[in-house]
Specification:
The strands form 2 sheets. Strands 3-2-1-4-5-6 form a 6-stranded mixed beta sheet. Strands 9-8-7-10-11-12 form a 6-stranded parallel beta sheet, with helices on both faces. It has about 375 residues and is α/β, with parallel strands linked by helices. About 30% of the residues lie in helices and about 15% in strands. The protein has 2 domains: about 45-185, Rossmann fold, CATH 3.40.50; about 205-385, Glycogen Phosphorylase B (Rossmann fold).
C-alpha cells in the first residue's frame, strides 16, 4: 500500500523574526515559549556595535573603560567584542557586553555576515585593520589600512593616537593624556574618566572569601600583594629578585601586614625562588590555574605592588591601591584613579624607551625607590586604623 503523503499548509503570514537581543533562531529564549509568535521579554537590539581589540591582555582590560561611554552615547545598543583567546575570559561577567567572540576563523565568518552600525577598531595592527575593513559597518572608527597595506587613522579624532605611534618626542616627552582619554577621543566618545569594567562572578567572590578564611587573611590585616613579573614580551619591566626580597623582609616585620605573591605561569619559577629565600614571610598563590583565578588571587589583596603590566591593569580594574614602578613604558598614559602612586625614574634621559633590550644596564629598575614603597604601604596601613 502506498504511503499517504501529508502536505504542509502554506502559511499566509510572513515568519516573524524578533528584533531582540535574546533571540538566537535555534531555540526558545524561555522554555515553553514560541518566540516567533510572541516575544515574552522584548529587548530590542538597538545600535549594533562591535569592538575589535586584539592587543595585549592589559590593553584589553584598559579598553573596557570605553564601555560606559558607548552606553551613554547609545543607551539602546547591542555591544559585541572580538579578542584573542588568551584575553577572552577577561570579558566574563561584563554587564555592558552582550556578546564576546574569540579571534578564530569560525567567528570571522559569523561577524562578516552580520551588519553593524559602528565598529570600533582600537588596534594599530595590520590584521585588526584588515579585518575591520572587511566587515559590513555603517561607521568604522579608529584605524584601518590603505591600498599599500599601511595603517592609517579612519577618522580625524584618531589622528592624535596615530601620531603617538610615530613620534617618540610626542609620546615619551610631551603627551600628558591618559591612555583611556586618548582611546575615548579616538573613538568619538565623550571622556568622563570612566573606570575599567572588570567584574567577578558570585562564585569567584565566594572563592576569594574562602581563600582568605583558609589562610587567615580575614582578621583586619592589610593584605599586600606582589605582582612579581610580567609577560615575556618586555621582561625588563621586572624588579629584581633581590629587590623583592628586601621589600618582603622589611614589610613582613610590620605588625598588621600580610604579604602575598601573585602572578601568571611565566612567574612560577620566580615566585618559587622568592619563597625559597624568604620562607613563610609570604603566601605564594598558584600561578597556573588560569586567568580568572589569577584575578581572584589579586582580589584577595588590598594593595598591589607591581610593574606596568597586565597585573597592574587587573589591580586597577579591581579598584585596589596600586604602587607601580615604571621604566621603559609611558607612565603618563596610566590612570590609577587616585588609588596609589607611580614610581618614576626622575631625570633618567633614556626613560621611557619601549626597548626590549636595555643598553644601559637597566638603570630604571635599579632606581626603584624601595623606601618609598615601604613608606606608602605603611601609610595605607595607618590610614586603615
Amino acid at each position: 500500500m502506498a504511503k499517504k503523503i501529508i502536505k504542509k499548509k502554506k502559511s499566509s503570514k510572513k515568519l516573524f523574526i524578533p528584533d531582540c537581543k535574546r533571540f538566537t533562531g535555534y531555540k526558545p529564549c524561555f522554555p515553553g515559549t514560541a518566540c516567533y509568535k510572541e516575544c515574552v521579554d522584548h529587548q530590542p537590539m538597538g545600535k549594533k556595535i562591535l569592538i575589535i581589540n586584539l592587543d595585549a591582555m592589559g590593553a584589553v582590560v584598559q579598553t573596557t573603560a570605553m564601555l560606559p561611554a558607548i552606553k551613554r552615547k547609545y543607551p539602546n545598543s547591542h555591544i559585541s567584542w572580538i579578542t584573542l583567546k588568551n584575553a577572552y575570559r577577561l570579558l566574563d561577567n561584563n554587564p555592558l557586553l552582550d556578546a564576546a567572540y574569540v579571534w578564530e576563523p569560525e567567528n570571522w565568518m559569523i561577524l562578516q555576515q552580520m551588519e553593524f552600525d559602528v565598529v570600533y577598531q582600537t588596534d594599530k595592527t595590520k590584521r585588526s585593520c584588515a579585518f575591520g575593513q572587511m566587515l559590513k559597518a555603517k561607521e568604522l572608527l579608529g584605524f584601518g589600512m590603505n591600498k599599500e597595506g599601511k595603517i592609517i587613522p579612519q577618522n580625524k579624532e584618531a589622528e592624535y593616537s596615530y601620531l603617538l605611534g610615530l613620534d617618540d618626542e610626542l609620546k615619551f616627552r610631551k603627551n600628558q593624556l591618559y591612555g583611556t582619554q586618548i582611546l575615548h577621543e579616538s573613538m568619538k566618545l565623550k571622556y568622563q574618566r570612566d573606570e575599567y569594567v572588570l567584574e567577578l562572578s558570585a562564585e569567584e567572590k565566594q572563592f576569594c572569601e574562602s581563600y582568605r578564611t583558609e589562610n587567615r587573611l580575614n582578621n583586619g590585616d592589610l593584605i599586600v600583594g606582589f605582582n612579581t613579573g610580567c609577560s615575556y614580551l618586555y621582561e625588563n619591566k621586572k624588579m629584581t629578585i633581590d629587590q623583592h626580597v628586601q621589600l618582603i623582609n622589611e614589610l613582613s616585620a610590620v605588625p598588621g601586614i600580610r604579604l602575598v605573591l601573585v602572578g601568571g605561569p611565566e612567574d612560577t619559577e620566580r615566585n618559587a625562588e622568592l619563597v625559597r629565600q624568604v620562607g613563610n614571610k609570604v603566601i605564594s598563590t598558584p600561578t597556573t590555574e588560569g586567568v580568572r583565578r589569577g584575578i581572584c588571587y589579586e582580589n584577595i589583596c588590598d594593595v598591589i605592588i607591581t610593574g606596568d603590566s597586565f597585573g597592574m591593569h587587573v589591580a586597577v580594574g579591581l579598584k585596589k591601591h596600586v604602587i607601580v614602578w615604571f621604566g621603559l613604558s609611558c607612565w603618563s598614559e596610566i590612570d590609577l584613579y587616585d588609588r596609589g602612586i607611580k614610581l618614576i625614574p626622575e631625570g633618567l634621559f633614556c626613560a621611557p624607551c619601549w626597548k626590549r633590550k636595555c643598553p644601559y644596564n637597566l638603570e630604571c629598575i635599579q632606581m626603584i625607590d624601595l623606601k618609598k614603597i615601604v613608606g606608602e604601604v605603611n601609610r595605607v596601613a595607618q590610614a586603615r586604623k
